[in-house]
Amino acid sequence: MNITIPEKLNDLTLLQWQKIMAIGEDVDPLFYIKRILSIVYDIKAEFNSIKESDIELLTDAVRNILAEKPVFENRFTVDGIEYGFIPNLEKISFGEFVDLDKYTDPQEYNRLMSILYRPIIKKQVGARYKIKKYGGSYEFNNIPLGIALGAVGFFLTLGEQLTQDTLNSLTEVEVAQARKLISAKNGGGIPASTI
Predict the structure, then answer these.
(1) How far apart are CA 58 and CA 33, in angstroms?
(2) pTM for the full model?
(3) DSSP 143
(4) CA–CA gap between residue 110 and residue 22 (Å, rounded)
C-alpha cells in the first residue's frame, strides 16, 4: 500500500480539517485514530494490517501539521485556477458583508472561503488583481488548509482591529463632547462682558 504523508498544512484540505474537528474530543482513542487515518490517508479496511509503528508515524504527521501556524496568503492556485483574496474589504457589497457575517462557524469556513477568495479574472500592474464578481457562496472544500486558516486568522484579526479602532475613535468623540459640556458648564464659549 502506497501512502502519501502530508508534510505541511497546505497538504490537507479545509474539508479534511472540518471532518477532523467534527470527530470531537470525547471519543474512544482507537475510533479517533481510525477516523484520522480514514480522513487524511483514505485508509479504511486496511487499518488492521498496518504496523503499529506506522500508525504512530501517520498520526504524528497529522498532529505535527495541525500544530503549524498558518500564514495569510492573498493568492493561490487550486486545480489550475488562480484565486485571490478580496482586494479591498472596504468596498464589499452588502451581500458579501451579510454572508461573511453568517459563515463564521468553523464548520462553515468552506462557505466563508468562497466569499473571501474568488477566481482572478484580470491581473493588473504589480501584485494587483481583479476577482470574479460575487454571486453567492458555495462549498469551497478543496482549498488548502493553511490558506483557509491563514485567511480566517487575518480576517478575525482585522475584525478585532477594526473594532478597537472604532472604540478608540468613539472614545475620542466622547472625550471631545465631554470637554464641550464641561466647558459650557464653566462658562466656556460665553463672550466676555464689556461692562
Answers:
(1) 10
(2) 0.75
(3) S
(4) 14
Query: For residue 153, with 0-12 CB atoms within 10 Å meaning exposed, 13-18 middle and 19 or more buried, which class applies?
Result: middle
Is the pLDDT score of 78 beyond 60?
yes
Distance CA 104, CA 30 (A): 31
Q: How many CB atoms lie within 10 A of CB 137?
A: 20
The answer to whether the CB of 131 falls within 8 A of the CB of 60 is no
pLDDT above 90 (res 193): no
CA 116 to chain CA centroid, Å, is: 9
User: Amino acid identity, residue 162?
Assistant: L
Burial class of 101 by CB neighbour count within 10 A (0 to 12, 13 to 18, 19+):
exposed
Continuous segment of H or E residues that includes residue 122: strand 117-123
